[in-house]
Amino acid sequence: MTVHRLSPEILSAMEGAVGRNGIAVEPAGMAKYLGDWAGDYQGDALAVLRPGSVAEVQALMRLCNELGLGVVPQGGNTGLVSGAIDSKGGGLVVLSLERLNAIRQIDADNFTLRADAGCVLQTIKDACEARDCLFPLALGAQGSCQIGGNAATNAGGVNVLRYGMARDLILGLEVVLADGELWSGFSGLRKNNSGYDLKQLFIGSEGTLGIITGVEVKLFPKPAKTETAYLGLASFEAAVTLFNRARRDCSDLISAFEIIGAECIELARLVDPTTRAPVPAPVQVLIELSSSAAIDLNGLLAGFLGDAVESGLVTDAVLAASTAQARRFWAIREGLVEGQAKRGYHVRTDLSVKISDIPALIKQARRFVANDHPGWLPLAYGHAGDGNIHFNVLPPAELAGHEARARGAEVVAGLYEIAAGLGGSISAEHGIGRSRRKEFWAGLSPTHRRMVAALKNALDPKGLMNPGCLLPPTETFP
Ligand SMILES: Cc1cc2nc3c(=O)[nH]c(=O)nc-3n(C[C@H](O)[C@H](O)[C@H](O)COP(=O)(O)OP(=O)(O)OC[C@H]3O[C@@H](n4cnc5c(N)ncnc54)[C@H](O)[C@@H]3O)c2cc1C
Question: In which domain, by residue range, is 126 found?
Answer without folding.
Answer: 103-221
